[in-house]
Amino acid sequence: MSHYKIILSGGGTGGHIYPAIAIANELKSRYPKAEFLFVGAMDKMEMEKVPQAGYEIEGLWIAGIQRKLTLKNLSFPFKLISSLLKSRRILNRFKPDVAIGTGGFASGPLLQMAVSKNIPSLIQEQNSYPGITNKILAKKADKVCVAYDDLERFFPKHKIVKTGNPVRQDLLNIGSKTIEGKDFYNVKHHMVTLLILGGSLGARRINELIASKLEFFQAHNVEVIWQCGKLYHSFYKQFDGMENVQVHTFLNRMDMAYAAADIIISRAGASSVSELCIVGKPVIFIPSPNVAEDHQAKNANAVVGKEGAVMLKEEELDLNFEDQFSQLLQSKERQDVLSKNIKKLALENATRDIVNEVESLLKG
Description:
Number of domains: 2
Strand content: 15-25%
Low-confidence stretches: none
Number of helices: 15
Mean pLDDT: 91
CATH topology of the largest domain: Rossmann fold
Number of strands: 13
CATH architecture of the largest domain: 3-Layer(aba) Sandwich
Order of helices and strands: EHEHEHEHEHEEHEHHEHEHEHEHEHHH
CATH superfamily of the largest domain: Glycogen Phosphorylase B
Largest sheet: 7 strands, parallel
């Protein structure tokens, strides 16, 4: 049978959306006649990014619980009930052969209703410390694909398959694209290129840091490709066009950006960490402290513990950033060690391996 119907849910951030799209693309390449439907959260970025990738999406009225006391939490029970009911209607109409969840607000109601209807289901957990949604769903899901070791604390051991996180396939041969990447972003070949990644929405503290260090970078002959994010571009675009500085809302050609980079500063979201392992460049992680269970610091530590990256917490930046960056910049040997060690952690076949697990559910 190749006329499978496949439903996928994941969103809120690129870290949940792009893995779902990568899984769908691999399934589509194996089953060209399959039908796909995505389910996301209304007003979140998946409602734009999924159609851009060529897939249909339906939105749920859902949002997460705020960790601080706020009036927004009063609407959560109503949003949850609404989303569960709409998920059931979507499933009854679409009749999927399998349900796939990659995390985010919308995947909870959709996967919960799917498992209650005995639809074969797979969840893909990107982080080293799972979110509450996937912890709950794992009890009833058929398979749990993970990217890190030691997750038996959170998920039933017999359901866990270590696959890694899906990444863009165009990142697999970055080493051969250095000249093309530097030309694409019009950076000088004789200068060190620093790539700054704060996520699709942006990272306030990283942006503040970079803005305050532009003269420092100039003094050290460093050229900057700065992805400041959607929320911050209107302010930081004032620095675009400064000598050796370019400011972008979003980098549509990530393969070229990674290829152009000599050193990378990044948040430590799960997808970013997985991509950076494949890219194999020297990285300074600045984890977001504003995430559940401090999971970005845990993601970064999994790499730092293997001598594969440098990590600076936000509260250390004012005191330690210039010293740490200078040390890395001035030691080619240190850069090579970090590159070699982070590359060892890469799981390049993650998308293929996850889809193999989906296939086993489809074939039952």
